[in-house]
């Protein structure tokens, strides 16, 4: 470790130890106060970390410093705000299938960015505790201590690394780790989070269970060749699941609408029955040509209409008309009385929409506010048209 490297490392002050048995610390950059994670490792692949420091993969922690001395390797990397899938499992129990499929599709995207490198970078320690879900719902892959570069010239791994239960058979000396090693661990991770067991103990059922079985085949040649194939199958399964959920939701909504419609019809029918039983609210006929108030044959409406028409007739034929203080008689008196009668009866017919007269008048689209605005306008126009003949008569006889 050079003097410059020691200085750079000294700029990160240890704040908290994050692991009981491993040398992993939360550190604070003295100048910026930003938080990072510092790891001290005795078994490591420096070349992998240096490559990760150079490439830009958004969903893995950004490596800010790598230094090495005679006994250990120290890495300072981005601090991820969130929880690991293991922490979420310990707190909430088994994952829901749909939720986990989304997470695993994101994991496949991350692994693909590692596997397409030349040479490919194989993580070799995919497990729930190394998959993070940030506070804003982003999937992150951490802990590259076991990672290695794939070497096609080697027959088997020189260093056996990984986590028991999640590690593929080739990590125990039965071949060399490659991209399919991460596929195996991804399958075990899915099974574990869905059942609480490893595939050998209990295989998850359904279509996802078949995907997990393909991931965790002992023979690497019988697994998915790469994470892209796994991701494609997960996407197809997710689409099928969402379609099925949508169809179930549509069926449920239609059923609820049918029940709601039936309830409304039942309420309407009950109300109609009650109205028919009550002689005052019962509809005796439905004749559109009868005057407003008499069209439905409902007694209470007809009684009000009779009284209203009586008042209109009484007001019209008893009203007195004066001009310059002189009471009008003869033609002028009766012209004014008939005009008043026509105006009041016409107003009732417009407001009552007799023979759908209002619906025939513009505008075509009538909202509630527009309706009463234009009713007032039509009544005013109608009044003006009724007054014109009276004015003409008065001019003729004056």
**Number of helical runs?**
10
Helix content: 40-55%
Quickly give the structural class. Answer: alpha+beta
What is the assembly state of the chains in this entry? single chain
Name the poorly predicted regions.
none
Terminal CA distance reads 122 Å
Report the sheet with the most strands, covering strand number, pairing sense and barrel closure.
5 strands, antiparallel
Q: C-alpha Rg, in Å?
A: 43 Å
| Mean model confidence by pLDDT | 84
Number of strands: 12
Strand order of the largest sheet: 1-2-3-5-4
Q: Please write the string of helix (H) and strand (E) elements.
A: HEEEHEEEHHEEEEHHHHEEHH
* Range of strand content: 5-15%
Shape: elongated
Describe the protein's architecture and organization:
49% of the residues lie in helices and 12% in strands. β2 (24-29) and β3 (35-41) form a beta hairpin. It has ten helices and twelve strands. α4 runs antiparallel to α7, α6 runs antiparallel to α7 and α9 (330-351) runs antiparallel to α10. The mean pLDDT is 84. The chain is elongated and about 130 Å long.
């Amino acid at each position: 470790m050079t003097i410059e490297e020691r200085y750079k490392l000294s700029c990160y002050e240890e704040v908290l130890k994050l692991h009981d048995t491993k040398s992993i610390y939360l550190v604070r950059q003295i100048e910026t106060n930003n938080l990072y994670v510092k790891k001290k490792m005795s078994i490591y692949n420096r070349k992998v970390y240096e490559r990760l420091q150079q490439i830009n993969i958004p969903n893995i922690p950004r490596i800010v410093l790598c230094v090495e001395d005679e006994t250990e390797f120290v890495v300072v990397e981005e601090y991820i705000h969130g929880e690991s899938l293991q922490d979420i499992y310990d707190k909430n129990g088994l994952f829901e299938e749909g939720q986990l499929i989304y997470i695993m599709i994101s994991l496949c995207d991350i692994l693909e960015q590692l596997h397409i490198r030349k040479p490919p970078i194989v993580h070799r320690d995919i497990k729930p505790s190394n998959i993070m879900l940030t506070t804003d719902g982003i999937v992150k892959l951490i802990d590259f201590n076991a990672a290695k570069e794939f070497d096609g010239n080697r027959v088997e791994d020189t260093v056996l690394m990984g986590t028991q239960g999640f590690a593929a058979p080739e990590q125990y000396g039965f071949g060399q780790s490659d991209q399919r090693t991460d596929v195996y661990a991804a399958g075990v991770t899915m099974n574990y989070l869905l059942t609480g067991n490893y595939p050998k103990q209990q295989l998850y059922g359904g279509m996802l269970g078949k995907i997990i079985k393909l991931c965790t085949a002992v023979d690497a040649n019988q697994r998915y060749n790469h994470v892209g194939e796994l991701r494609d199958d997960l996407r197809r399964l997710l689409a099928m699941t969402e379609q099925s959920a949508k169809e179930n939701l549509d069926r449920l909504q239609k059923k609820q609408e049918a029940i709601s419609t039936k309830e409304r019809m039942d309420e309407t029918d009950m109300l109609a029955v009650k109205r028919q039983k009550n002689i005052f609210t019962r509809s005796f006929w439905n004749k559109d040509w009868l005057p407003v108030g008499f069209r439905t044959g409902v007694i209470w409406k007809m009684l009000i209409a009779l009284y209203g028409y009586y008042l209109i007739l009484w007001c019209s034929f008893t009203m007195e008309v004066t001009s310059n203080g002189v009471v009008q008689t003869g033609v002028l008196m009766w012209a004014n009385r008939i005009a008043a009668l026509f105006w009041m009866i016409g107003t009732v017919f417009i407001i009552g929409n007799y023979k759908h007269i209002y619906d025939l008048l513009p505008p075509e689209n009538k909202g509630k506010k527009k309706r009463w605005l234009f009713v007032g306008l039509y009544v005013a126009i109608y009044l003006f048209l009724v007054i014109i003949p009276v004015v003409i008569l008065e001019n003729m006889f004056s």
